[in-house]
């Protein structure tokens, strides 16, 4: 889909310096968990664009993007202050890392990677599949959704930012429980790939999205 104006349905706080931006789904927009969009807006009259990965398990009437808010950023603080009814421009979806409901999943998330990770886990649960979420963050986001997943039978493991040994252990323990996904910034996903390799797995078989 080329650039399309979409309406902001709501903005809600989902963790420290983290908001969920819910957008009305435009006609013809067909996306799967794991894909991302290019969002464009003009906070101060000058256009700014950023990529955001979907954080909702589907794109029925609305879809969600999880936004980490940088107080000094040129777009995220403006998005966080929206009240609903405003419009932004969206292009996409992009990306080949997707979930189609066919497999059990292991979703490993660092920082803002929890958005697509929780979406994939929810989509797996909705499809009757098992899900594991391994989440590294000192101040986690989307805790309500993660608790709901755990109550529904999913495995959720929280790991502190400095607990890399614990993260590696969680990956080694759960890596064979389903198709492994990883979402996060470069240092995080590099560590995940190395942990898979150290545990005797093949990191090339994991679906890894590097946020840069």
Automatic annotation (TrEMBL):
InterPro entries: Cbr1-like_FAD-bd_dom (IPR008333), FAD-bd_FR_type (IPR017927), FNR_nucleotide-bd (IPR039261), MRET (IPR050415), Riboflavin_synthase-like_b-brl (IPR017938). Residues 1-100 form the FAD-binding FR-type domain. PROSITE patterns: FAD_FR. GO terms for molecular function: oxidoreductase activity. It comes from the Archaea. This is FAD-dependent oxidoreductase.
């Amino acid at each position: 889909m080329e650039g399309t104006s979409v309406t902001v349905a709501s903005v809600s706080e989902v963790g420290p310096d983290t908001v969920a931006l819910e957008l009305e789904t435009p006609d013809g927009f067909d996306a799967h968990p794991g894909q991302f969009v290019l969002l464009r807006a003009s906070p101060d009259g000058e256009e700014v664009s950023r990529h955001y990965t979907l954080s909702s398990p589907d794109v029925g009437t609305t879809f969600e993007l999880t936004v980490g808010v940088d107080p000094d950023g040129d777009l995220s603080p403006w998005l966080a202050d929206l009240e609903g009814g405003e419009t932004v421009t969206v292009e996409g979806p992009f990306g080949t890392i997707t979930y189609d409901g066919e497999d059990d999943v292991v979703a490993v998330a660092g920082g803002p990677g929890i958005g697509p990770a929780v979406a994939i886990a929810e989509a797996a649960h909705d499809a009757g599949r098992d899900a594991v979420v391994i989440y590294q963050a000192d101040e986690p986001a989307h805790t309500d959704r993660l608790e709901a997943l755990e109550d529904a039978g999913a495995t959720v493991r929280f790991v502190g930012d400095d607990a890399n040994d614990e993260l590696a252990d969680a990956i080694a323990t759960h890596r064979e429980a389903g198709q492994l996904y990883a979402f996060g910034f470069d240092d995080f996903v590099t560590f995940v790939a190395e942990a898979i390799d150290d545990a005797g797995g093949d990191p090339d078989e994991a679906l890894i999205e590097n946020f840069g």
